[in-house]
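Researcher: Hi, I'm a grad student and pretty new to this. My advisor asked me to get structures for two proteins we've been looking at. I'm not sure of the right format, so I'll just paste the first sequence and hope you can take it from there.
Model: That works fine. Here's the first sequence with its structure tokens right after it:
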Amino acid sequence: MTSIGILGAGRVGTNLARKLSAAGHHVTVGGRGPEGTTAHTTAHNTAHPAGPAPRIAFADQRTTALTSDIVINATPGDSSLDRLADLRTELVGKILIDVSNATRNDGDGLPGDLCYPGSSLAERLQAALPDTRVVKTLNTMLFMVMTAPEILATPPTAYLSGNDQHAKATVTGLLADLGWQPERIEDLGGITTARATEAMILVVPHILRRHGFKPFAVSLAR
């Protein structure tokens, strides 16, 4: 069992928390509001309704980062860099899985441009957190596909970017717990390759405007 902290209590964070907890990991969700300052637990059991419900703890983000072996960044990408740079001490020696996209929104609230053109949020995080092993993944799909890739008619792709091979191997194991088959995980190479997958977010608003909020992923067809 791995201790996993998830920074961000929105749809992405809570969705990941439920699936990883059901897979047997100890999960803490870190919020930044007053409700996150007192740790508590809650039961979720979407995977096995007849069995014991997995428990998810809640804490503030600093405590979550400090007490977890692996940390997932599911905070809004346009503010992630400042937020996580402030947790540099707590993240020393940890694996940081970045699933966010740093974008500036158009008038309708959908992504319109990248915050870091010519770079990426993952690269900026790795530079700001030199003692943390950053791995970028799961940022090229709607949140429900992250934990249920089987819901798509065409098998989706989960891309990996990161400088540390051991960290990427660990993340690959967690992706398997989320339902990802090994042949659908594409290791692109070092952390600089994250700028390619982060740029894919620019296709998303056009798809959503045409087809609505339906599950999809930007995937590799072979």
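Researcher: Oh nice, that was easy. Here's the second one.
Model: And its structure:
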Amino acid sequence: MNTFLKSILVLTVFFSGLIPLSAQPYNLEIQIQNQPDNPVVFGRLEGDNFISIDSAKATNGSVLFLFPENAQPGVYRLILGKTGYAKVMNDDPQQLDFIFNNENINLKTDFKNPLGALWIYESDENRFYFDFIQRQGEYEKAISLMEQEVDQYWAQKDTTKAINLSNEFNQLQMEWDLRLVQTIQQNHDKFASKLIALEREPLKDGFLSPAERKEAEKTNFFKHIEFTDASLINSQAYTDKIFEFLVLFNDKSFNKEQRTKAYLKAVDIILPKLDENTEVRNFVIAYLVHGFEVLDMKDLVSHIEAVQ
């Protein structure tokens, strides 16, 4: 064999040896303290649907899963099992949601408190996302307390304090929204940024009464939200947002007829928002239809099917 052919053969073997390495699936490794002796179930989310991928028992508190080679970026879930209380009360199992975006993931947590005890050894995506979740929780707690104070001052007719705090209340919301926009722009390559974009909310004006504020929230709810990205089907982002909107139209005092009329108003606001992406539209409509079927609201199901 001449030198040229030998060189070609060597290069062919070399590059063919590299192909399996580049095709290696990403892995998920998690250490779980206090994990009971039951399998940990690993899967992905499509709205409220959990699609199981694999399951395995922890060995010395550690579990390793491989993502399928065709795994899409999105929100995935680990179901750890039920606590003793959950078994007695038929409650939900302990679980942990996280983001996969084409990287290896290494986590540590505790069965008793999966989210609170979460520690991320490896995953830039999840470090970014869970840092945001923590900051968002702090903001929501602060803004909720401030809203209560604002309403209290207006109710007491303490105008000076009410005006000052209302301005502060509004300013804090605008600053948070600006921070969200900057965070999204600076991390546009992350799947988490798509989830964060759906967390943007319209201003809750401190100069309005609680009832007026709720009506304004209904009107402006979708101001910053677009149903155009089909990749978000691989999460609960769209379904959570739709559910949150429907809750605004419900009232504990409503009878079934009143609740149906209220939800009809909500549905007629939602459906025109879904025209930009057929896949997302079909997904959201299926979610609405299933939800109203479970609630035995046949008029709503018929209405949706008639207008879609």
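Researcher: Is there anything I should tell my advisor about the second?
Model: You could mention this: The chain has two domains: 18-122, 126-307.
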